[in-house]
Amino acid sequence: ATKVLGSTEGGCICTNDDDLAALLRNMRCGYGMGRIVEVPVTTNGRMSEAQAAIALMSLDDLDEHIPRNQALAARYAAALSEVPGIELCEPSGVDFSNRQYLVCAVDEDTFGLSRDRLARLLKAENIYARRYFFPGVHRSVPYATQYPQYLDKEAKEIIENAHLQAAEIVDEAKERVQGLLKNAVSDIEQKKKAFESTLQIACRQGIEKLKQKIEQEMFVQGLKELVAEETADPKFLGQWIASFLQALEAKGIDEDLSALIPKSVTPRSINALLTSRFLDRLKEKSVVLGDFDGGLQIKLHDRKITIDISDLALRELIADFIRRDFRELVFQV
């Protein structure tokens, strides 16, 4: 084992902060260990009896292990001091070190070999050396930002470059978002105009025949029945659907849609009047029955919009083409 004090698994935290110690004890094994303090989470982190026994035996040998580690470190330091390009990393900012590891920095240009190649050569000579924790703790969050005084020059450059790159990435992301929003607004506006134009064309074509019929029978009492009857003709409905689909194609609008027909008309009678090209544009590959007496309803699924050209909606549209002094009489509104 590489640890100066081992217990198979586990670890210990040393602190001179009583509040932190109380917090850690409660987090380790729940409440009941010392005074109770508020903690964000608890866990069962206690050692087993076997682990505790191994740790106690290891503790008995601690006073022998540390001096031996220090003696070995001194021998390495003396021998390596004469090797150009190899520098021992001495602990700093501490009063005491157990010399658990011997850490070296390899200057490839001066030494003549890279760190990784040196490690492979040592391994071939049965000397165990390796790159251990990477990146080093002093280069990792939060230590790199909270204790920058312990960073080496290379690490400081890495942190500074990372901050610069992060700022550049954020700025680039903001520009991309603004560009995407601008393009999205423009695209939506174009599609909105195309949709409105298509709707106007479809409505004009659809109500032209009804307008002429109503103008001829303006004083008929059963205007409601007349509108429903005229807009329930399968041939008329087929032509209307075809005109609407042609208008969508002309505007380049391609999305799933459904065509709802009056409940008194069979889908088969309408499908027979439509070409396979138009039927393929429909989501169900067929017209479907709606809950109205005449006219059409077109559903654009991607936009979640229903274009209502049923008999009820048509009466309101047709009102715009009838003289104001007859509207109340005809529509009873």
Layout of secondary structure:
Layout: H1 18-29, H2 49-60, H3 62-80, E1 86-88, E2 104-106, H4 108-111, H5 115-124, H6 143-146, H7 153-216, H8 223-230, H9 234-250, E3 257-261, H10 267-271, H11 276-281, E4 288-289, E5 295-300, E6 305-310, H12 311-319, H13 324-331
Parallel strand pairs: 3-4
Antiparallel strand pairs: 1-2, 3-5, 5-6
How would you portray this structure in words?
- By secondary structure, this protein is of the alpha+beta class.
- It contains 13 helices and six strands.
- The strands form two sheets. The protein has a four-stranded mixed beta sheet.
- The N and C termini lie far apart (93 Å).
- The mean pLDDT is 79.
Task: Jot down its keywords.
333 residues, alpha+beta
Residue-averaged pLDDT, rounded? 79
The percent range for strand residues is: 5-15%
Class by alpha and beta content: alpha+beta
- The number of helical elements comes to 13
- Level of helix content? 40-55%
Intertermini distance: 93 Å
Number of strands: 6
Largest sheet: 4 strands, mixed
List low-pLDDT spans.
none
The value of Rg in angstroms is 42 Å
The ordered H/E elements are HHHEEHHHHHHEHHEEEHH
Adjacency order of strands in the biggest sheet: 4-3-5-6
| Form type | elongated
